[in-house]
Amino acid sequence: MRVWQIAAYVLVLAAVAGCAPKMPQLAAPTKLQDLQLSKGLVQGQGETPANTDWWRALLDAQQREILRLALRNNPDLEEAEARVQLAAAQLRGAGAKLVPQADLAGHIGVSRWTQNQFYLPPYAGESSWNNALKLDFSYHLDLWGKERERVREARLHLLMMQQKQRAATLVLEAAVVQQLLAIAGNDAVLAQLYDEQQILQQIESIEEQRQQHGLSNSLAALENAARLSRLQREIEAEEAQQEQNREALAVLCGQGTRLPATLRNAGRRSLLRPYWQSPTQVPAAWVGERPDVVAQRNAIEAAAAAIQVARDAYYPNINLVAFAGGLAAAGGLFTFLHPGSLQAGIGPAINLPLFTGGRLRGNFDASQANYNVTLAQYRKTLLQALQQVAGDLTTLQAAAQERASLQQREVILEHSVRLQQQRYQAGLSNALPALEVRVPLIENQLERLRLDTHAEQTLVALYAALGGRVVAQTWPEKSAVHG
């Protein structure tokens, strides 16, 4: 090859490379340090690591079996697993161009050669074997790194899908534990409502006796009947809510609307504990380590790799290609395998993008826009995560204050119950005041039960929002349970 021909090729390559746009200065993702945080979120790492089975310490053996059933059968997790498998397959496909490619092709047949074209005797008008076997080899040199960036993009996409799978798992785990808490709360509330119903029925019986003896008018009996009617409606509503919670739990477990018989009464009441504690502060860094937040960071890196791929598309593709094989249109069946039938070749193959109608520029601009989209999505995900954690902390702190008020009121009501019981036992009053004074105590306990259920559900949501971390000294020991 002459020097001027080599120079011409170099000039063409340089001209094409000169058409490639410069890599843009990409904006950096939002950092936690740059955001204003509420007092419940503090800078620092903390000492509690994220745990894939964070819920183990919260549940008993049967409850853990329910959660494992959900992890095995929930369709959301099945979808997330399928997306991970899809991303893994795409990664394998993206890496294919970085390894040598080889194809083997051949054909065996009989051809009759025309007399009216360029075929001369002895072929014209005759038939003969027309066989061929060819091995093609190619290797993409990837001088500009486009395929390596494409592989990096696919690998980051796989990491993103894996983190999204973990995020979906956390959401499911929290939902199952919250449903178990809701059912436990229904059980405890119904037990108190049944106690109140029994007391009101005793009061009704006493009022009927008093009315028969002329010691009371019908107004007191009517008021008590109205209370019993309201209480019955409350019991029916609570029972309906309990059934709905059971159905929701079965759906989470992928079992239809009914759990297997062996798991329908899986130690529900033991899950409620009255001595939960509200965390005062948690490290903001835990929010940054959440799977959904990490997934969005992976998406940003993948989008940056896609920009590099779009830019490298301006450069020529250079492949090393070779072929070897046998070809014969005459002779016997296996003549194409004889040494004299061998044909082979080797050399570079260059593909230069010259006129693409704006396609390359459009792809490059689109990749930059997609990067900005992922930046905004990351910022949104991070802010929503911070809001969720801060909101849970605020809810728990307010619940702790309300619990303190209910506890103080309960002490007063218990004292009143003891006094009335003492008066009744001493013969200073009948049974009616001793029964009536127990009703406000039960109603206070009902309010406390509902508060504890909601607070513990919020704690579970907080643990999941922190990536699967049970904040130390916030969940009581199993010995501290509602009776």
UniProtKB/TrEMBL annotation:
NCBIfam families linked: outer_NodT (TIGR01845)
Alphabetical list of Gene3D superfamilies matching this protein: Outer membrane efflux proteins (OEP) (1.20.1600.10)
Keywords for the protein's UniProt record, in alphabetical order: Coiled coil, Lipoprotein, Membrane, Palmitate, Signal, Transmembrane, Transmembrane beta strand
Family statement drawn from the similarity comment of this UniProt entry: Belongs to the outer membrane factor (OMF) (TC 1.B.17) family.
Matching Pfam families: OEP (PF02321)
UniProt keyword Membrane, yes or no: yes
Coiled coil regions in record: 221-248
Compartments it resides in: Cell membrane; Membrane
GO terms assigned for molecular function: efflux transmembrane transporter activity
PROSITE patterns reported in the protein's UniProt record: PROKAR_LIPOPROTEIN
Top-level taxon of the source organism: Bacteria
Endpoints of the signal sequence: 1-27
Membrane-topology descriptor: Lipid-anchor
Main location: membrane
GO CC annotation: plasma membrane
Protein name as annotated: Efflux transporter outer membrane subunit
